[in-house]
Amino acid sequence: MSKFQRKSISFRLNGVSVEAEVEPRELLVHHLRNDWGLTGSHVGCDTGQCGACAVLLDGHAVKSCSVLTVQVDRADVVTIEGIARPNVVQDALHRHHGLQCGFCTPGMVMAAIEMLGAGENLDEEAVRRGLSGNMCRCTGYQGIVDGILDVVGSRSNAEIYTVKGA
């Protein structure tokens, strides 16, 4: 029995309204993985440095290992599982060989979605800066950067992604 009093929260998870009873100290990444079975957000470092656990929180990419679950009360959370396939980001990463072992992919996709959704002019330097909080040990980043730049160069006003449950 935990010594912490559980708190009731409600939020949108991948487009669906959900409710949960959570401990105040529980990290979002553990809640998503353990309580909802959403294992696409990877636990890589538990310190917020690698980005493998990134999710979209109210449209912004955040590292779910540094967000308490109680902080998402009344928020909108989208995990990699909630991103409908096909989508332009994952397709471009695939085309440019920006996917290898796949461990960093969820975080890279979330970072790319946030960058692309901001409506800023993205060049290689801006994309690299936007990915700076995400680590990849396989690709050397060039395929990831090229994939994101491909989306920048080819999109008209197409949606970057849609949420499956929405």
What does this structure look like?
The chain has 166 residues and is of the alpha+beta class. It has 2 domains: 7-82, Beta-grasp domain (Ubiquitin-like (UB roll)); 88-154, DNA polymerase, domain 1. The protein is 30% helix and 15% strand. It has a 5-stranded mixed β-sheet with strand order 2-1-5-3-4, with helices on one face. α2 packs across α5. The longest helix has 13 residues, at 105-117. The termini are far apart.
Quick rundown:
30% of the residues lie in helices and 15% in strands. With 166 residues, the protein is of the alpha+beta class.
Features:
DNA polymerase, domain 1, alpha+beta, single chain, 166 residues
Which regions contain 5 or more consecutive residues with pLDDT less than 50? none
Helix content: 25-40%
Largest sheet descriptor? 5 strands, mixed
User: How many helices does DSSP assign?
Assistant: 5
Q: Would you identify the CATH architecture of the largest domain? A: Roll
Q: How many domains would you count in the coordinates?
A: 2
- The Rg value, from CA coordinates, equals 16 Å
What is the CATH class of the largest domain? Alpha Beta
CATH topology of the largest domain: Ubiquitin-like (UB roll)
Alpha-beta content class: alpha+beta
**CATH homologous superfamily (4th level) name of the largest domain:** Beta-grasp domain
Give the DSSP E fraction (strand runs of 2 or more residues): 15-25%
Strand order of the largest sheet: 2-1-5-3-4
Mean pLDDT: 89
Question: What is the chain-wise order of helices and strands?
Answer: EEHEEEHHHH
